[in-house]
Design goal:
With about 170 residues, the protein is an alpha+beta fold. It is built from 4 helices and 9 strands; from the N terminus they run ααββββαββββαβ. About 25% of the residues lie in helices and about 40% in strands. The strands form 2 sheets. It has a 7-stranded antiparallel beta sheet, with helices on one face. A two-stranded antiparallel ribbon has the order 1-9.
């Protein structure tokens, strides 16, 4: 019995020390880019692809600003061309950290149509605007602004926060 307790203690201790050096998704994103977060927006962070693709998301009402980092070993998107597909269309350009970047737009479903209705209507769609920022070591960040509402924002609060955010973004060396 004592050997079992000792073995369990050693395994738990080894696991804790292995995770001690692990970065949270927020720390992983901040290690790649510096930025000024929108004031009073809620922060959410998570990772996809077995932690290879960290995401940092700022939310306020129907608006969200995201930084998604890709290109690490095991990433769902090893290169920018893998991320940018035919569902997005060009909508101009912007300058981020002194670089002119293409801006692309796409629509995404906010709410699906009710499949139980005799004639289901169309899904309600929101919009996402994004640009791809190359980083060192083959990594890249997708900077995005999402509006999860079919209604426009007459005060353009989200769009203004997005513009200010883009001006603050800088890749880290």
């Amino acid at each position: 019995m004592n050997r079992l307790i000792l073995a369990a203690t050693l395994i738990l201790g080894a696991s804790a020390s292995a995770n001690a050096g692990a970065k949270t998704p927020e720390q992983a994103v901040k290690a790649l880019v510096s930025f000024k977060a929108p004031k009073a927006w809620r922060v959410v962070s998570y990772a996809n692809a077995g932690d290879a693709d960290p995401v940092l998301r700022f939310e306020s009402g129907s608006d969200a600003i995201l930084i998604r980092a890709f290109g690490a070993p095991g990433s769902d998107y090893p290169a920018p061309a893998d991320f940018v597909d035919g569902s997005a269309y060009g909508s101009g350009s912007t300058v981020v950290a002194g670089r002119k970047l293409d801006v692309r737009r796409k629509r995404f479903p906010i709410e699906a149509a009710d499949p139980h209705r005799p004639s289901p209507g169309q899904a309600i769609l929101g919009t996402e605007e994004f640009c791809v920022l190359p980083l060192s070591g083959g990594r890249f960040a997708v900077l995005a602004y999402r509006r999860a509402s079919p209604l426009p924002d007459p005060e353009r609060k989200g769009a203004k926060a997005w513009a200010a955010f883009l001006k603050s973004v800088k890749p880290k060396k």
